[in-house]
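Severity: low
Component: inverse-folding endpoint
Summary: output formatting inconsistent between runs
Steps to reproduce: submit the following structure tokens with default settings.
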């Protein structure tokens, strides 16, 4: 009951802050941005300070409590069967319970010249990842909101229908070495739904 009250209190505070921000806008004054427009709000993994990063509840709360033109940020990882998922880290065990679901399926890969051991999306199909649930990547945060499934990029774009979508691709070369084309995935995404921004340190 206490956790429910805390959640309601957080939602009320967010709503009050949003109402205050919208009520105080002065349309005649320019913003101190390059084009004078209001700055964009980029929800990195949704409302990920409270909920597991890239979970449906984190994305939904970000849309519900932010500005009308909020942009949802998705770190794209590719599965063995070429599905794009929104997941905050290349190593799946950093924000999910995959190590307990598939305890014997860790692997070792070189990523940008660094040898890494862990659970990687390239070793699993989307169907297999349906058995894995998101957790907080920072373990000092509450575990009360665990249990949300990993979302595909299509889930975020079509089911959640955000005002804007930003796809971030951090490890294009890693996926290419596993015969997974991030370029093909992004082009397919452009044909299927609206993507406002794409970024990558490797493009």
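Observed output (run 2 of 3):
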């Amino acid at each position: 009951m206490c956790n429910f009250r805390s959640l309601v209190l957080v939602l009320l505070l967010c709503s009050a802050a949003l109402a205050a921000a919208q009520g105080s806008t002065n349309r005649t004054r320019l913003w101190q941005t390059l084009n004078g427009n209001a700055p964009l709000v980029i929800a990195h993994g949704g409302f990920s300070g409270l909920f597991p990063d890239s979970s449906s509840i984190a994305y939904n709360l970000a849309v519900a409590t932010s500005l009308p033109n909020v942009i949802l940020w998705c770190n794209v990882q590719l599965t063995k069967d070429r599905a794009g998922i929104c997941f905050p880290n290349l190593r799946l065990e950093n924000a999910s319970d995959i190590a307990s679901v598939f305890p014997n399926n860790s692997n070792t890969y070189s990523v940008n010249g660094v040898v890494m051991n862990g659970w990687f999306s390239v070793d699993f199909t989307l169907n297999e990842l349906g058995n894995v649930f998101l957790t907080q990547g920072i373990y000092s945060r509450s575990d009360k909101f665990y249990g949300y499934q990993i979302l595909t990029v299509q889930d975020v774009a079509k089911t959640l229908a955000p005002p804007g979508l930003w796809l971030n691709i951090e490890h294009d070369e890693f996926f290419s070495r596993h015969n997974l084309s991030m370029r093909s995935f992004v082009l397919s995404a452009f044909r299927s739904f609206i993507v406002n921004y794409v970024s990558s340190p490797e493009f």
